[in-house]
Amino acid sequence: MGNVKNERMLDFIFTGSPSFSARAGILQTAHYTVKTPAFMPVGTGAAVKALTPDDLRDSGVEIIVANTYHLYLRPGHNIIKFLGGLHGFMNWNRAILTDSGGFQAYSLMNTRKITEDGIHFKSEIDGSEHMLTPELAMEIQSALGSDIAMVLDECLSYPATYEDTLRSQELTTRWAKRSKAFSGREDQSIFGIVQGGMFADLRKKSAGELVDIGFDGYAIGGLSVGEDRSKMLEIAEATVEFLPKDKIRYLMGVGKPEDIVDAVAFGIDIFDCVIPTRNARNGTLYTWNGSIAIKKSAYTRDERSLDESCKCYTCRNFSRAYLRHLWINQEPLSFRLNTIHNVYFYQELMREIRRSIEINKFDDFRKEFKNPIGGDEKCGQE
Amino acid sequence: MGNVKNERMLDFIFTGSPSFSARAGILQTAHYTVKTPAFMPVGTGAAVKALTPDDLRDSGVEIIVANTYHLYLRPGHNIIKFLGGLHGFMNWNRAILTDSGGFQAYSLMNTRKITEDGIHFKSEIDGSEHMLTPELAMEIQSALGSDIAMVLDECLSYPATYEDTLRSQELTTRWAKRSKAFSGREDQSIFGIVQGGMFADLRKKSAGELVDIGFDGYAIGGLSVGEDRSKMLEIAEATVEFLPKDKIRYLMGVGKPEDIVDAVAFGIDIFDCVIPTRNARNGTLYTWNGSIAIKKSAYTRDERSLDESCKCYTCRNFSRAYLRHLWINQEPLSFRLNTIHNVYFYQELMREIRRSIEINKFDDFRKEFKNPIGGDEKCGQE
Fold first, then answer.
1. Same domain, yes or no, for A159 and A293?
2. What pTM value is reported for the model?
3. Is A259 designated active site?
4. Residues of A in contact with B298 (CB under 8 A)
5. Which domain range does residue A355 map to?
6. Which of B176, B180, B187, B205 is nearest to B145 (CA)?
7. Residue B119's closest CA among B155, B143, B146?
8. Predicted interface score ipTM higher than 0.90
């Protein structure tokens, strides 16, 4: 059993055997103790779309992701600070990880310009100009009061040359140093983000430099940006080898259920992705026998629940026929019931993964796991 | 105490003194016993927008309205019948009243043509042609299995001449006769709908003819169609005088809180309107000190709940500042939390009305009741 006490509020304790690649553990944050491997639903703007905090708790969610970039622009981090931080603001008493804005710089800020100092961008809301520096990203996250803050990183477009990737990776390291130097909240952990594109040697270089700086946990960024699935998994797996065993590992923006299962196999601990929530609104719903496009006319008279083994509120109370009707009518209730189900499905998947690791049966679980994915396949903005 | 046993499943028992105009009672339907005066949230397409059945029960809702016209077109009444009727389909085990489609003929069907036989219209969904007869309206409602069915009526445009109103009122009576003759479900009550426009003598004629046919309850239709508030109340009050004291009275499509209070005063028992739910989505929220437009910047840092005396889920858990943020971001959660509050507010209003009637203090309640309305002022389609 590994048991590593960090400088800040983050304890990570293995509950499964650490001699296997797949790890089960307990991540103690300032607000909540999170069982890993964990999946974090995305609550970009201080709300997981269509769900209340109670809906999240009922699904077993222990940690969510919120977004520095979005909350900085609206309503503003100082307003959230005044209102009790993100936990008080949205009335969520479990753990929160905040992303730094680096991924939004990559995916949203069309008018951005990246310099040594930071990311210059125009607000998509009112056109106002902003400069997101590593220090500002930490200041915002400090005001938000998340349990885990991410350093600002540069997330390159795909594909990128070796030269561009090297330049970007080195910038990310310098930004990581500045972030760590600026950070200050005792109750907030900080994760570094490994970059290095699709080049294994740059991933190694990035990981080594971040480990030298010293973070409470390590994320793998810059994946799921257009490369194919096998490349994503190959680079993530190669990166893990350069990360310390006793620190938490976070594969950002991943992913589909089978991606999660495969990444747990080589030692990833936490995940986030908009797929379950966005697919819910698109009407793509998960079952243990594959995914369902609820709009199909085949479900018009289908009295069964989405998944007969599922214990979520939606499956306990409503038929596929009713869910189809709500979706066809684009009823607001459709988004909520579908989201409850998909979020619950992902949490159940993580529970099954953890259980199988703890009884040393993860390899069997992985072999038997059927591909339940369909619909929207790319993680990204919620 | 009045205690009148009807031919079908509808018992209406006074719980307050029937010697006063304002009445409190208990309306026993096949699925649930409803305390009156009651307000019915509108669940047009087999869902009250953004709310689950549990949300409705938690607010104290005992009866909702669903819509024959919408459910006939989509998903189709026979599909709902196959899926256990409307109660089974939407998993709502309390009372349901179904409107007949007459009001939709007035407000939605632009391509309609009204003949002696019924209402000929084109589907707004696929352009298909349909003929809604009094018999079909009853057949649909029988398939839906609502606790209370409404007869098909003609709802005239406002203003209308005496001559047109007379013709229309007489057609409505003939349709009411056909509806009653066609009805058959033992567990479904039928209400007649008094028409007669803005002419008190035609209202009297209509009420008299319907009472001669004999219904389980009587609705006042054709109001809230553009006339001013005082006219609406004047005609409704005049109509009540021609209705039997021992039968339930339903003022259709009304209304604002102060309209409800005023109409209870002259003996109305049940109400429905889209105002609380539609206003919720528009960000107009009720408090006992007046209504709030939640988008206003004054609420940006407002830590208070919407109404400090309110016990709804929204007020127990979230600040005005958070609700404003959700609304500005048009988060799906905004619609749900706002709707929970407004539906709860209306139910609380009805609880206060009933309480005050039962202790003979309704007049005091009415005098003290502040006008909490703002925002969208007209009932209509959800």
1. no
2. 0.94
3. no
4. none
5. 280-368
6. B187
7. B155
8. yes
